[in-house]
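Field: COMPLEX_INPUT
Field: COMPONENT_COUNT = two
Field: RESIDUE_TOTAL = 720
Field: MODE = joint
Values follow.
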Amino acid sequence: MNRVRNFCAGPCTLPVEVLAEVQDELLDYQGSGMSLIEMSHRSSDYDAVHSAALDRLRRTLEVPDEFEVLFLQGGALLQFAMVPMNLVPAGSSVGHVRSGAWGKAAHADAERVCSAYLAWDGTDHRFSRMPQPDEIEVRPGTRYVHVTSNETIEGIQLRSLPDLGVPLVVDISSDFLTQPIDWERVDLVYGGVQKNLGPAGLAVVVIRRSALEDCVAGLPSYLGYAGHAAAGSLLNTPPMFSIYVMEKMLRWIQDRGGLSGMAERATRRSNRIYDVIDSSSGFYTGPAQPQARSRTNLVFRLASPDLDGRFLAEARQSGLVNLKGHRSVGGMRASIYNAMPDEGVEELASFMRDFAGSAG
Amino acid sequence: MNRVRNFCAGPCTLPVEVLAEVQDELLDYQGSGMSLIEMSHRSSDYDAVHSAALDRLRRTLEVPDEFEVLFLQGGALLQFAMVPMNLVPAGSSVGHVRSGAWGKAAHADAERVCSAYLAWDGTDHRFSRMPQPDEIEVRPGTRYVHVTSNETIEGIQLRSLPDLGVPLVVDISSDFLTQPIDWERVDLVYGGVQKNLGPAGLAVVVIRRSALEDCVAGLPSYLGYAGHAAAGSLLNTPPMFSIYVMEKMLRWIQDRGGLSGMAERATRRSNRIYDVIDSSSGFYTGPAQPQARSRTNLVFRLASPDLDGRFLAEARQSGLVNLKGHRSVGGMRASIYNAMPDEGVEELASFMRDFAGSAG
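Field: COMPLEX_OUTPUT
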C-alpha cells in the first residue's frame, strides 16, 4: 500500500496504527463473535468503549470536574442552533465574533434562535486576524460571547481566550486538542471530531455543570443538553463507530504526551512550514497576519495563481494531496492535524522549497 | 472466528460479506492511498459512494420521483423535533397515533414544538394491536397524522398505511425495507438505519417535494430540510462511514430481490418463529394480537418468568444472543432484521422447540 500524505481540512488523516486496530477488530470485536458496529449500545462491550472514550476525552482535553462531556450528532453545525436554544433565556442576548466563515455561520444561526449581535467583525480586515480583547463589544444583558478559536478556511487562530467579563462559548472544531483551553473563561466548548480526533459523525460538547442546570427547559428530546447529560450520552443510539475510533485516537494522543504533546507538535510543525513561506523571498505569501497564523490550517498563496495547477499536480506526484485552498479564498491550504506524521510535514517543506526553487 | 446469531433490536447484525469488504478497504480505499473515513466529503471518491447510496436507497425503497431522499444525523429522535418544526405552520395541528413506546415519545416531542393531539391511543390495550383506520381521529386543521409502522418494544406492526384524508408521516425505523410503503398516502417517512441497513449514526428522511417547498422558513441551518435538500445531504460533513456501509448493505439487498425479496424474507422468517410459539401448547405466548404481530421484532413470553434466565443462558450457549425483551415489557424478543441469515432463524426455531420440550 502506498499511503499518501493527506492535508485535507476535514475529515482528516488518522494514524495508520489506529486504522490497523480497527481493521483487525472489524469482524470480531475482542472475541464477542460480532463487530462493534453490530452491538447493542446498551451492551457491556460497547459501554466499556463509550465510558473509556468519555474518560479519555476528559483527561486529554484537561476538562475540570465542574464540566460535563457530551457526545452528540449533527456536527458543529447543529451546535450553532443547540447552544443558543439551551443557554439563552428570554430577554438575554448573545454576542458573536465574526472572525471568518465559521464565525459568520454561527452568528447567522444564532440570529434564527435568539437576539444575537455582532461583538466584533473582521470582514473589513478580510479575516486576516483575530480581535484584541478590548475590540470586542459586550452589551448589557449578554449571556455569552461566541468565538471560533480557529478559522479553518482563512487560517487564523486565537492564541488565548479573552477575559470579557461574561462567559465564552467556543467552537474548537479545527484546533481541537492542539492548544490548552482556559476553562475559567468558558461556559461551553464544542467541536466536530473529524479533524483532529476521528471519523465524521460525532460532535463533542463540554458544558459547565452550572450552565447545564440553567438550560432552557421544554426543548424536544434531542435538542436539550440536559437529557443527553442525564443519559450519559446514550439518550438514543450514539454514533458508535466514531466514538470507538476516537477512543483509540485519544489513547494514541495520550501515548504522545497528551494535550501538551499535541500543542508542542502543532507549534513546531506549523513553524516548519511558515519558515519555508517566510524564507521564500516572497514566492509564498500568507494572507493571515503573522501573530494570528493558524497552527492547524496553513493558508498560503504562490507568486502567481497561474502556478497553482502545477503546484497541485507535482505535489500529488510526490504523494502530498488535498493542498488546494478553499474555493472562497483560493491559493493553497495545508491542514496539519494531530495525526499527520512528522515525515509528512518534512516532505511538504522540502517539496515547497524545491518548487519555489524551480518555479520562482 | 465463532460468529454468534445476534437478535439485538438495534444496532443490528450485518452480513459478513459486507463486513469483510469494509475490512478489506479500511486502510486503502480502492487505491486512493487512504481510508474512506479519512477522505474529504467533497472528494470524487466519497462523492461516488454518497451518490450511489442515495440512488440505491431510492431504488430499493421504491421511492417515487416526487420525493427527495435526505441523509441526516441525530437518529429518528431528532426527527421527532425536525418533522413538526419543518412541516407545521402556525395555526395547524398534528395528530399522533400512540401505538407504543416510540409512538408515545414522538407525540411527546411534537407537543414541545406545535399543537399535537392524540389521534388514537393504544394504552388501554397495552399496545397489543394497531388501530383500525376508522378508529383514528382526524381533527380539522390537521397538517398530518404521525404513525409508527412498527413498534420495536411491543412487537406490533401496521400491515398497511391507513387512508385518513390527510397526509401521513411515518416512522419506519424498525421495519425499514421489510414491507412496501403506500407513497400516495405519505408526505414524509423517516428512520434510523441501525436496524435493517447499517451502522448507527445515520437517519434517512424521504420527503415529498411539495412538502419540502412548503417547509417553515428561517430555521437554523441543520434543522431545516430545505438546506439539506439543496446541498444533496452535504450541508456539513455527513456520517460518511455509516453511509458507506449502508451503500454496501443496499447492494446486498438488491442482490437478494430488493424490497419484495426482503418482504418475503421477513414474512417467511417471522412466521417460522410464530409457528413455534403457536404450536407450543401455550409454553410460549405473545402479547401482540395475531394480526398485529411484528415481522421484525418478535416479542414472546415463556410459561413462567422463572425460566427466563435459563432460556437466555442456554440460548447463549447455542450462539443465540440478545434475546432478552425490553425492560419495560419483560420476556423475550427476537429481532430478525434483513441481515440475519436464514440459518440463524432456523437455529432459533430449533432451540425454542427443544427448550419447550425440556422445560415445558
